[in-house]
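Researcher: Structure prediction, please.
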Amino acid sequence: MATPRILEGIVLYSRDLDRARAFYRDVMGLPILLEEAHVIHFDAGSVRLAIHRYPTGEMTGAPEGFLVFAVPDLDAAYAELGRRGAEFLGPPATRPYGKVAYLRDPEGHEIGLLQEPSEGSDGFRRVGPLVQRFNRIVAKLSD
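Model: Predicted structure follows.
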């Protein structure tokens, strides 16, 4: 049997940890777990999000990839984050895998908000096992 692998955290680099702290704490609403001079760890629900200062102090290239946060009600999250100062790349849109909206953090990392498709929908039939896993995780985190 293979050793299970569970994603524990995601690391992004930042030139300005003060701006990153303000964005992820105040705009995104993530609690800070640990803060050191070179890194801030945030509680992102099922994973840890660590924002590290660029090791060389310089950006080595364009940010790659993006984060996705699952939300139970995308319209409510979109309105709330907008009030907190988030600037979205566009309005919420419905996709086969759920309802989505995108914004960027101060470093330019793209962040997606995803409302999973509802049970019984075509989207749910496509990604049902993932949605059910997400719902189990949320239920355990709520205990």
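Model: DSSP finds three helices and eight strands in the chain.
Researcher: Thanks, that helps.
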